[in-house]
Amino acid sequence: MSCQPENRSGVKRIGILTGGGDAPGLNAVIRAVVKSANNCNIEVIGLEDSFDGLIEPDRWRLLGRKDVTGILRIGGTILGTTNRGNPFAYPVDTSGGRKDYSARCVEMFHELKLDALVVIGGDGTLGIAYEFHKLGIPLVGVPKTIDNDIVETTNTFGFDSAVAFATDAIDRLHTTAEAHHRVMVVEVMGRYAGWIALYAGVAGGADVILIPEIPFNLERVTERIKARDAYGAQFSIVVVAEGAKPVGGKVSVIQEGNAAVAERLGGMGARVAVELEQMTGKETRSVVLGHLQRGGAPTSFDRVLATRFGSRAVELLLAGEFGNMVAFHPPDIVAVGLDRIVGRTRNIPIDFDVVRTARAMGISLGD
Ligand code: F6P
Description:
Largest sheet: 7 strands, mixed
Number of strands: 15
Order of helices and strands: EHEEEEHEHEHEHEHEEEHEHEEH
Radius of gyration: 22 Å
Oligomer: single chain
Distance between the termini: 57 Å
Strand order of the largest sheet: 3-2-1-6-7-14-15
Bound molecules: 6-O-phosphono-beta-D-fructofuranose
Structural class: alpha/beta
Helix content: 25-40%
Shape: elongated
């Protein structure tokens, strides 16, 4: 096996963890990191359940080639994950007594004799990674989320898989909507960005797409549905991003957040369906795709992207280029400083080509 490039940083033993909500492709990154690192005689320690794996002495395991055989195509993460808890937010009770969580993680990093970390996560986890980087932990981040809302990378892995699933769901809703002359409202994930809704909506031939970046007016949506009726298309498909909101209104929250846990969005699809039924006079149903969008096998695009991210992350470790996130700047995988991504959200520019394309197709964006 060849090691390219040469090991200039002298890293010999690295930890890897997955944090935040899972996304198809996490296992593909783990596999790529283990294979690339092992080829350079670097040991890989898998840390369980995000940074919790650096709290207790028994929450880690050595990962070799055999441990990653066959996981490329499997969703979820063999290491487990959590989107509850921020090591910098509160102390934690451990078998060694009450400890400052972040100090404990640094302590365990040294106790495990790790030289560096690969942190795979979304904006929250990468923000935590940046704090550890500032505390002197050498690390590289890998951007993951189905939401595709991390700045400085054109794609996160998981997004393409979520869009593929949502597109399939919209295809299925089309046939039943048409058969019953109904309006079908489908709510998709994405938090405060509308990437999944926009791409799945265009790919699935939706008639209306409501995204957080463009506050909606249901009068406009009603006009679109009635216009379709008038030319003989007596059904409509309305895709609603979970973070969409009406003009002058608020997002629909099902659980408030706090310092350690993000607020949970949901319910806007059902609200839109109730109002559209009244406004259009048409029978309307709503469906929430929810966590189905995060499950299942990664698409081939996500497998390749995740594999490239994992192998590039190891290259950065070998070169000693710590404090960076790997990023997709087509056609290349590049390194971007974590300081440039923390606290920012990548939203859809409202003059984005796919937005203009949607409008050209006659899709209503609710404005
Ligand atoms: O960030 C990924 C995501 O799936 C969002 O689209 C969604 O709002 C959130 O996570 C759901 O989180 P949970 O798994 O805590 O319900």
